[in-house]
Specification:
693 residues, mainly beta, Arc Repressor Mutant, subunit A, 6-stranded antiparallel β-sheet, 5-stranded antiparallel β-sheet, 43% strand, globular
């Protein structure tokens, strides 16, 4: 039988302690901080998540009904049915708890929730410490729990002959704990505006020593200013540029330029004059370069199958691939110049945990979430990065594992950051609105999310993905309503969406998994069984789906059973369910064939494609006998159309920056989902000075 919480719950607040210890955690209810005593790291919980944890702790060992929790968390308020579930999901994620096999929060069917661990309010060194405590921690527990004279007396009585050894051990323990790093007092920060003009300013770089900033304005202009934002020099290019990075000591600046299907690395001076340009490097996307020394840089280049790291010696124009210490299923994110001027590499594993490593494989820092925005703070000797929240706030982390908050966004998100030697953080804070528009050019859904994948069927219903919650979730727009179909709350990415031929089911992916939906919920999900990331998928008929990683094509029934595997390499492939044929792009040519096994014998040439149509192909659509897809050229987005009926004309129907996705209306009209009302300004997040006088 579930118990009821005190009503109102302030009865508990009057008598309850403010600090709780359980297993290897400490929760400070006054500050809403959850400390991991193993990693010495703290997380600032959302107020409602902290309130939920407080209630569970003060009612430990008792089953608390859903109704009682709802009344305590939202008194006199009507809330959505899944609001409590979402809070529990967030709390379980912070505690790394598994709902199916819980260590912390147990679901009691039809009754409520039970908090399992024992609670202590005095010391972390209690019997509630985790089973995985090391021998050293157990020795520490004994040292702290027993007075020093009693330890000596017991040792003399039991083992007189080991007195000398025991004394030495005591002094060794004292010496060890006296040298254990104590928590550092991190700074607090205040924000200042560097740029105020409406427009797009991003990819900020601050010189560590000099009074110099560099950033990109309106995609093609390199701006050089001082650190107050006073403009000094600028240079405009004919294609997009990105990611300037100052040399740590000299007045040299490295930055990228997108040129056709490649990227060129420029090195310039503080007057925006070009001193050196590399040969074009094949690329899809790039990230900020890292200066290793005056002559060498580490470059991170996104290629066809993910990111690669290269050492670039600019005096000799030499590019050398670096052997990163990672497994095939892990992802490389980028490099940073940090402690002692050395280069470190960020790797994200298959469980979306991040680690910072050197080339010898040594791990220097870890995070329990995907890190994608990061830089080194020379003043604090810490790494500034995004956090694990939906809003990607900025946090700092020391090498001893201690974390601290830096700044939270109020609108949009931080997209680049740079830190000088005084600890001043310069960041670009971008905000935007992205609209999916209907046939009357009216927005059916608007958000600050940058991902949509809208796909409209013949009934006029649109299924799409959005990350407005911080996670990839699937939505359905039908009957002038938007309905959320998934509540995944995981870091897996959605790349594809498509309706089945009968318009009754929706196929999506989550990384290498395939997921089936109807108009109300998730039906099933299963592994695609590919060795590499998915490149495309679709329906063969109402009962069969297919997927490819560019190397092989797998087919499945709707229960996820693998029916066949066909080795077939291609740059692009899609199945035409109406005429039962494969549409394939290989070696710059568009083909059609009824079989992949006998493709060479059966293939029919439809059209030769221009190079601009072949770079970074994504989002294919088959509508009314026409094939559509997106590509990119010099970082400009293009949408293409090819008639699958003679004469197979190839047409570029849209060309502009910031097209995130597109859709085809039932009548064949092109609907574009793109960034609108884009603003991006440079902010200074400055450590506050405490005047003690």
């Amino acid at each position: 039988m579930s118990n009821s919480l005190p009503n109102p719950p302030t009865d508990v607040l009057k008598v309850a302690p403010t600090c709780f210890y359980f297993l290897h955690w400490r929760f400070d209810s006054e500050k809403d901080e959850l400390w991991n005593l193993e990693t010495h790291s703290a997380t600032k919980l959302e107020p409602q998540v902290a309130r939920l944890l407080f209630i569970l702790l003060t009612q430990q060992g008792q089953v608390i009904s859903r109704e009682s929790l709802n009344d305590a968390l939202w008194p006199n308020t009507i809330v959505e049915a899944n609001s409590l579930y979402q809070l529990l999901t967030k709390l379980r994620k912070e505690l790394k708890d598994n709902a199916r096999s819980p260590d912390y929060i147990k679901t009691v069917p039809k009754k409520g929730y039970l908090f399992l661990p024992e609670i202590n309010t005095d010391s972390p060194y209690t019997k509630t410490m985790s089973v995985g405590d090391t021998n050293r921690e157990k020795a520490t527990q004994s040292i702290i729990a027993t007075p020093f004279p009693a330890r000596i007396k017991n040792t003399l009585l039991k083992h007189c002959w080991t007195l000398l050894f025991a004394t030495g051990a005591c002094f060794s323990a004292i010496a060890f704990f006296s040298t254990t790093p104590s928590p550092v007092s991190p700074p607090s920060y205040e924000r200042h505006n560097i740029t105020y003009d409406l427009g797009v300013e991003f990819n900020i770089a601050a010189h560590q020593d000099k009074n110099l900033l560099a950033y990109v304005e309106k995609f093609k202009t390199l701006e050089i200013t001082d650190k107050s934002g006073k403009k000094l020099f600028k240079k405009t290019f004919d294609t997009r540029i990105a990611h300037p990075t100052w040399h740590p000591y000299e007045e040299k600046l490295a930055f990228w330029q997108y040129q056709k299907d490649a990227c060129v690395l420029h090195i310039g001076n503080s007057r925006a004059e070009i001193l050196h340009s590399s040969d074009p490097i094949p690329c899809h996307l790039i990230t900020p370069p890292s200066w290793k020394n005056a002559d060498e840089l580490v470059l991170t280049v996104t290629e066809k199958y993910g990111k690669k790291a290269y050492l670039y010696r600019h005096r000799h124009n030499q590019l050398v691939k670096l052997p990163l210490p990672k497994e095939p299923e892990e992802s490389y994110v980028g490099a940073v110049r940090a402690w002692e001027g050395k280069i470190y590499y960020l790797i994200v594993d298959s469980k979306f945990h991040s680690r910072l490593v050197s080339l010898d494989g040594k791990v220097h820092m870890t995070w329990t979430f995907p890190v994608w925005l990061f830089n080194f703070d020379p003043a604090q000797q810490s790494i500034i990065s995004n956090d694990g929240s939906a809003h990607h706030n900025l946090i700092g982390k020391y090498r001893n594992g201690q974390t601290y908050p830096v700044f939270a966004t109020t609108q949009g998100m931080f997209t680049s950051l740079s830190v000088d030697k005084s600890g001043d953080i310069f960041t670009a804070a971008e905000s935007w609105q992205v609209n999916i528009r209907d046939e009357y050019n009216l927005p059916i859904f608007s958000s600050s999310s940058i991902d949509y994948l809208p796909v409209t069927n013949k009934l006029g219903e649109t299924v799409f993905m959005s990350r407005r919650t911080g996670y990839c979730e699937i939505y359905l727009h039908t009957g002038n309503e938007v309905k959320q179909l998934s509540f995944h709350k995981g870091h897996e990415y959605v790349d594809f969406l498509t309706w089945d031929p009968m318009l009754s089911k929706i196929l999506a992916n989550r990384d290498r998994f395939l997921v089936l939906y109807d108009r109300a919920d998730v039906l099933t999900s299963f592994q695609s069984q590919h060795q590499k990331p998915l490149k495309q998928f679709g329906w063969r008929n109402n009962q069969t789906v297919w997927s490819t990683d560019g190397m092989s094509v797998n087919t499945f029934d709707l229960d996820g059973h693998l029916l066949s595997t066909t080795h077939f390499e291609s740059d692009f492939i899609i199945y035409h369910t109406e005429d039962k044929s494969w549409i394939v792009i290989k070696d710059g040519t568009l083909y059609r064939a009824t079989s992949l096994i006998n493709f060479e014998e059966q293939k029919q040439v439809l059209a030769k494609l221009p190079r601009e149509a072949l770079n970074m192909i994504k989002n294919p659509r088959l509508k009314n006998g026409d094939l559509f897809w997106q590509s990119a050229w010099s970082k400009t987005d293009l949408i293409w159309k090819v008639s699958l009926n003679a004469p197979f004309e190839v047409t570029n129907i849209k060309e502009e920056p910031l097209i995130w996705h597109y859709d085809i209306a039932p009548d064949g009209a092109l609907l574009v989902a793109k960034m609108e009302s884009v603003e991006s300004d440079i902010k200074l997040i400055k450590p506050q000075t405490n005047d003690q006088e």
